[in-house]
Amino acid sequence: MASLLIKNGRVVDPSLNLDAKRDILIEDGKIKKIGARVFSRRCSRQVGRGAEVIDAKGRLVLPGLIDMHVHLRDPGRPDKETIASGTRAAALGGFTSVCCMANTDPAIDTPAVVKYVRNKAETCGVVNVFPIAAVTRGLKGEALAEMGLMLEEGAIAFSDDGNPIMQADVMRRALEYARQFGVPIISHCEDKNLTAEGAMNESALSTQVGLPGTPSLSESVMVSRDIMLAREFGKVHIAHVSSAASVDLIRQAKRKKIPITVETCPHYFTLTEEAVADYDTNAKVNPPLKTKADLKAIIKGLADGTIDAIATDHAPHNIEEKNVEFNLAASGMVGLETALALVLTYLVDTKALSLKKAVEKLTSAPAKILGLNKGSLKAGSDADVIIVDPKEPWTVDTSKFASKSKNSPFNGLKLKGRVLCTIVGGKVVVRDGKLLV
Fold first, then answer.
1. If we measure between CA atoms, which residue out of 409, 364, 151 comes closest to residue 274?
2. In the chain, which segments carry CATH 2.30.40.10?
3. Per-residue pLDDT tens for 258-285?
4. CATH 3.20.20.140 spans which residues of the chain?
């Protein structure tokens, strides 16, 4: 594998507490060395004749982003997404590692399906793929799946995401079992007894537009339950938190040192329920978009550390499942190709988060939560690196997405921040914003 020398970039790596101009030498797929003005003309000759020099002057050089919540739809729904298309979308968005959820068809609830995903990713994926296996068989929330055997095949955590585990005793057993292996249960916090047929957030707006509402309480009730279970039985990671009440509960729990971690998604700090007022099904998600007060609480939670990580919840759906009546439309939006720009535009440029803190929530924080040896540029690490122009303006055009599905409410939105180069294991897979694979 050819050596790479990235010169003159502003390297931001929260795992190293680093934000400074640095050069990075990559050899044999690993970070060989990182330093300030270390690689002079004389030193660069030592890299070898076949070395490629990438000048990152005026650019950000970051650890490859980690998306800890992605739906790749494989196996079962290649019309929506495949591992090939999903990982290419990830590379364009600056994600060098993605963690795929278990609600596929069949579900990732056996060692054989975990092995299938890993083998498929090695064959046709262009970024690292880490399977998150099901907690229960068939995602039914009843009998536990073969958790230990799935870990042996390469699963890194467990989740029935898309379905809440309604039975508290099942959640307890799952936590006790997962605790033996030091891995989290990722909880989809939704009380199905409260959501009924809800299609959007329950509010005055839902009454005004005539859509059945889902009360915000349906999330916070389950967050409260899982906090109490975590205190007694093991580590819980709460997925896609969206409400102010949930953030308050989590903040209190963390003050008591209860073992919970939390993620939110870009749509919860950029959009409110107003996005569905004209029945745009691309903005229909689960949990549903909420109020301005909730949005502000999410941003505050990110700023004060209550919310640990940002994940996309990339949920591709084809046009047949979105171009229908709002009540019947599938929930979810694609997010891999817009997430970083939304973070830079809505959090960093507004000074809600520092650049280093924002990068942490997309790199070292998810790596720590899931126990991944990723998200860092320290010497010896896998050479997963991205180069970003933080100021380059661009307009979202879903027709140009690498993802097979185009269900994004951000189509036509002007953003700042573009991924110019993505390097995975020392291999350049995106250059000048274009896929090479």
1. 409
2. 4-61+381-435
3. 999 999 999 999 999 999 999 999 999 9
4. 64-370
- pLDDT, tens only, 204-247: 999 999 999 999 999 999 999 999 999 999 999 999 999 999 99
Please, are residues 53 and 7 in contact by the beta-carbon 8 Å criterion? yes
Rg (CA), the chain: 21
Catalytic residue among 191, 313, 384, 389: 313
Q: State in words which class domain 4-61+381-435 has.
A: mainly beta
What is the C-alpha to C-alpha distance for residues 158 and 124, in angstroms, rounded to an integer? 24
Q: Is the dihedral of CA 174, 287, 118, 388 positive or negative?
A: negative
Please give the biggest Cα pair distance in the chain: 70
State the alpha helices, DSSP H only, in 54-187: 83-92, 111-124, 147-152, 168-181
Give me the helix-helix angle, 168-181 and 217-233, nearest 10°. Answer: 50
pTM of the predicted structure, to 2 decimals: 0.97
CA–CA separation, 98 vs 153, rounded Å?
17
Backbone angles phi, psi at 300, to 5 degrees: -60, -40
- Whether residue 411 contacts residue 94, with contact meaning beta carbons closer than 8 Å, is answered with no
Residues in contact with 265: Cβ distance below 8 Å, sequence separation at least 6, in sequence order: 69, 240, 242, 310, 311, 312, 313, 335
**Is 313 annotated in the active site?**
yes
**Are residues 216 and 245 in contact, defined by beta-carbon separation less than 8 angstroms?**
yes
**Cα 82 to Cα 76: distance, rounded to the nearest angstrom:** 9
Strand partners, 21: 10
Q: Tell me the pairing of strands 200-201 and 128-133.
A: unpaired
Task: Give the domain 64-370 fold.
Answer: TIM Barrel (3.20.20)
